[in-house]
Amino acid sequence: MQIDHKCAYGPCVCKVPEAGQYCSDYCLEADKLPAEGKPCSCEHEECNAEQSV
Ligand SMILES: [Zn+2]
Ligand SMILES: [Zn+2]
């Protein structure tokens, strides 16, 4: 079983440790705002790779 889970911010594909909901403060703030259609830009590698495809 993996203990990692996905960031609670929908567009974000980062994994976060079980202790936290968000991978970063960016996602914590972004999840409070309407962000439909916006890609995550938390600057983590996983999200940057997603955008460049
Ligand atoms: Zn992200
Ligand atoms: Zn995130």
Count of strand segments: 2
Number of helices: 2
Give a list of the ligands. zinc ion
Q: What order do the strands of the largest sheet run in, or round the barrel if closed?
A: 1-2
State the share of residues found in helices, binned by percent. Answer: 10-25%
Shape assignment? globular
Number of domains: 1
Judged by helices, strands and strand pairing, the structural class is alpha+beta
Instruction: Sketch the major β-sheet.
Output: 2 strands, antiparallel
Order of helices and strands: EEHH
The low-confidence runs, each spanning 5 or more residues with pLDDT under 50, are none
Radius of gyration: 11 Å
Distance between the termini: 29 Å
Beta strand %: 5-15%
**Mean pLDDT, nearest integer?**
81
Describe the protein:
Strands 1-2 form a two-stranded antiparallel sheet. The chain has two helices and two strands; from the N terminus they run ββαα. 25% of the residues lie in helices and 8% in strands. The chain is globular, with a radius of gyration of 11 Å. It has one domain. The protein is an alpha+beta fold and 53 residues long. The site of one zinc ion has 9 residues, from loops.
Short description:
With 53 residues, the chain is of the alpha+beta class. The chain has helices spanning 25-30, 45-51; strands at residues 5-6, 15-16.
Keywords:
8% strand, alpha+beta, binds zinc ion
